Amino acid sequence: MLFGRRKKNPIKLADKGVMEWKYATCSYCSVGCSIEIGLNSEGRAVTTRGVGGADVNRGKLCIKGLSEAQIFEASGRGSEPLIRGKIFEPWQSCAWDEALDKTADEFKRIQEKYGRDAVAVVSTGQIMTEEFYTLGKLVRGVIGTNNYDGNTTLCMASAVSGYKRSFGSDGPPGCYDDFEHTECLLAFGSNLPEQHPIIYWRLKEALDKRKFPVIVVDPRVTMFAQFADIHLAITPGTDLVLLNALAHVILDEGLQDVEYLEQHCNGFAQMRELVQLYNPVYAAKICGIDEDTIRNVARLYAKADSAMSIWTMGINQSTHGSDGVCAINNLNLITGNMGKPGGTSLSITGQCNAMGTREWSSCSGLPGYRQLENENHRKEVAAVWGVDPALFPSERGLAQTDIFPAIEAGEIKALWLVATNPMTSMANSPRIRKTLEKLEFCVVQDSYQDAESVQYAHVFLPGAVWAEKEGCFTNTERRVNITRASQPPFAQSKPDGWIFTQLARRWQRGRAMQWAETPEQTFEEMKRLSCADGVNSPGANGSPRMLDISGMTYDKIERARGLQWPFRESDAQQGKVVGTARLYSDGEFQFPDGKARLLALPYIENNELPCGDFPFWLNSGRVVEHFHTRTKTGKIGNCNKFSPTAYMEINPDAAAEQGVEHMQYVRLVSRRGDAIVLAQLTQRVPYNMVFIPFHFHECVNRLSLGLLDPHSRQPAFKQSAVRIEACDQAEAARTNAAMRTF
Ligand SMILES: Nc1nc2c(c(=O)[nH]1)N[C@H]1C(S)=C(S)[C@@H](COP(=O)(O)OP(=O)(O)OC[C@H]3O[C@@H](n4cnc5c(=O)[nH]c(N)nc54)[C@H](O)[C@@H]3O)O[C@H]1N2
Ligand SMILES: Nc1nc2c(c(=O)[nH]1)N[C@H]1C(S)=C(S)[C@@H](COP(=O)(O)OP(=O)(O)OC[C@H]3O[C@@H](n4cnc5c(=O)[nH]c(N)nc54)[C@H](O)[C@@H]3O)O[C@H]1N2
Ligand code: SF4
Ligand SMILES: [Mo]
């Protein structure tokens, strides 16, 4: 038998014939790595490399960034607009004018017949910020429907809602540099090494220089949990109980920061009263973490000179998502860990531009963190756009997860999906499938025409992808970074921003408005709305607007490899070349009295729990190689080779009891549907849980329930109940092989 490589040749990097490198920001996750795209003599993207001088990634990229040059010509790209009379009929290719006319005509017809809000728009976290801004201008200023939201409701809504409830505004207050200063890191429901590999690398780098405790809260033994000093294998959906218990211990033992509490926080008395109920003995029974460990972690956190919390989907995707975020904020406020180096409450965001949509898309409000409920804000935006402020509703419409039930109920008749694939990414896909069939008109705008949701469209608009266009993304640490167009759009596809302005011109109101010719001009318009210059109102506490980008230009952003907001015109005038690392360093929050709010957050058990008929928790998440519904990574060599099939993690003891062997197919059944999946026996999951990566169509979301958080309307993707049944191995193997794309 041969072991290792036959010949030990030195590794040689293949010469890909790169003639030119173009600057960009990675279009997968929210880490926001600076990346260069290598073009050959024909101007085709042949490779990528990390940018050495960029603070975020310092030359590094993960497997997805390293293979990103392949996304431009991957199979399934949308090459031309498509149209058809009925879903499931064959598509006809058509000219852009025809596709856009049809879309505008159908929207107008449906709005005249059923009312303005009968058209719904669901967008994304993956197009450029300038495109988000333009889409918002079109939807709020021209089409005028209030049922407009993004897939970010599946992802960041609980973080947004929690930040607003605690601090008076959205906006992650911390940054990656906090790892260099912190003395204790607490991570909730986040698998950093796989989902944010380069943030994880930044953390490791900090740990190599200076040791501090890393505590990971996750029901699975993830890669992150394996590297942690303490792993808290929490009972799913009960982080709020753990957090209340941590606060209980801190207050009980007098470990709080009294001065910070008095000067900068409201609501202490009510919060204190509530957490009295969560003594560690009681909490341990619900959250599954023993009382000594709870006390130990509380003391470690409160006694550290600076301590920080990070979290991702294990918190946000929960029926207590928003409360969980507020409880994390409570923890940091009572220990005085806010806005100081190494002391913060940092939501790790998800998609490359999840932040851009929160800031500028007008999805749940108006641009620049403005609120529909605020009359001054409506007037300011109306003045810049040249529309009547009366056009804007005075409160937000339906969230993404409420739009689908409204289609089911017949209130919404037309749907426009922009860069999102709900057929695979939403919970309870059997129900979503029936819902989409009910639409009178559906238009899907995607860079890949094989995204599953395209099956339900009457019109398909092919969008240019990533560096086929120019614009900015904002990353987890509020860093605005730029992508330069490295090549023209694939075939007949067009930049999403172009599609939005062309569509706008099909309305009288749209023709009367000004539409920028280039993304850079759009950016200049956004800058005007971002600062308090006498025209715009200041922040709620009277201080300058927080989300201020007025000192930025495209060139300055590229030179700095990204700038963190706020970056004001006055900063630029003083010659500053870096933005603002942290928010709330002065202890001034965005409520009128400038104080943060401590909240009393009772835990109410409301999940679908495992039971006799469905004895396993169904948990779901991601693997490092794939991105979401695999429209990109499912076609890319290494990503797909390393992770080719859907699989289920199951504990060996549970498997033995169920008569399931390693690499055997099983049928999983929930109250919604069933799915065939390959069993992988591993101690990563506890005895009563199975875990499935959600990337594969016809798998986990056929089973998931997705109960909604009452504040954020985000689904609890990670908590539902399933049972395991045997299935025909040969048939399952055939189906599985047919679903593979390589
Ligand atoms: N490779 C890759 N990277 C990505 C993405 C991708 O698709 N692929 N997507 C990006 C996006 S949009 C996002 S939102 C992020 C997501 O990033 P993460 O949130 O880190 O990823 P997930 O795997 O969805 O979930 C993280 C963990 O939550 C745990 N969890 C489940 N239930 C609970 C609970 O009740 N409490 C706690 N504390 N933990 C729980 C799960 O076991 C899982 O290990 O990743 C981003 N990065
Ligand atoms: N069970 C379960 N379900 C989940 C999750 C989970 O953890 N478990 N996570 C949830 C989370 S956090 C998220 S963020 C969602 C993601 O859910 P989706 O947004 O539905 O997933 P994506 O596959 O990223 O879909 C984005 C689409 O945009 C297209 N696209 C990419 N770039 C461009 C562009 O520049 N222009 C245009 N026009 N199209 C483009 C892609 O081809 C793709 O079809 O999934 C959610 N669903
Ligand atoms: S860590 Fe995220 S941003 Fe960086 S290369 Fe990987 S996918 Fe891209
Ligand atoms: Mo996400």
Report what the structure shows.
This protein has 742 residues and is an alpha/beta fold. It has four domains: 14-71, N-terminal domain of TfIIb (Single Sheet), CATH 2.20.25.90; 82-155 and 353-564, Rossmann fold (3-Layer(aba) Sandwich), CATH 3.40.50; 157-347, Dimethylsulfoxide Reductase, domain 2 (3-Layer(aba) Sandwich), CATH 3.40.228.10; 616-740, Beta Barrel (Barwin-like endoglucanases), CATH 2.40.40.20. Helix content is 33%, strand content 15%. It is built from 28 helices and 26 strands. It has a seven-stranded mixed beta sheet with strand order 5-4-16-15-14-6-7, sandwiched between helices. It has a six-stranded mixed barrel with strand order 21-25-22-24-23-26. The chain has a five-stranded parallel beta sheet with strand order 10-9-8-12-13. β4 (82-83) and β5 (92-93) form a beta hairpin. α4 (157-167) packs across α14 (321-334), α8 packs antiparallel against α11 and α8 crosses α12. It is globular, with a radius of gyration of 25 Å. It starts with 19 loop residues before the first strand and ends with a helix. The model has no long low-confidence stretch (mean pLDDT 95).
